[in-house]
Design a protein that fits this description.
CATH architecture: Up-down Bundle
Order of helices and strands: HHHHHHHH
Distance between the termini: 72 Å
Number of strands: 0
CATH superfamily: MFS general substrate transporter like domains
Shape: elongated
Structural class: mainly alpha
Largest sheet: none
Length: 178
Amino acid sequence: MADLSSSKVEVHEMNAEEKSSSHKKLLSTSIYHLYTPGQRRLLLLAAACISFLTPFTDTVYLPALTSVADTFDANDTLVALTVSIYLACVGLGQLFWGPLSDHYGRTIVLYVVLVIYEGLTIGCIFSDSIAALIILRSLQGLFVGCTIVSAQALIADIFPADELGEATGAFMVRTLNR
């Protein structure tokens, strides 16, 4: 065991001027200044593109409903259920993914979700029954719900309060073109 009594520990106490200077530096460097305005606009564009998966996955499927009913010899109610259960699960997924992305980080959660979403989409393409399609579409909705909540949280994370309204408006413009 080492003898700690002979080691010297220097303690530097800050005087009032050093404390004030340190405090001013801390205040001038906020989390909103980690990215340049150009980087924030690029992240805003990426967030808008990623969150576009939710309405795209819903609407691109609608013209194929008749074909789905014919392929699986299913009634219209079951085929319509693939759309409504998808939308319900998108809402439920947001409740689940929001806290998870807060805890583990938006990037890793989003990467994992996008990989699983892609697998579920391929599963929907090759499903062999209406029951399998309903299950896969519900899981697809649960996972794609992460894109909206993560994108909106990202915007709130990188834009200061005085720019947040404009950034959110720019983010939501994609829904006006529907």
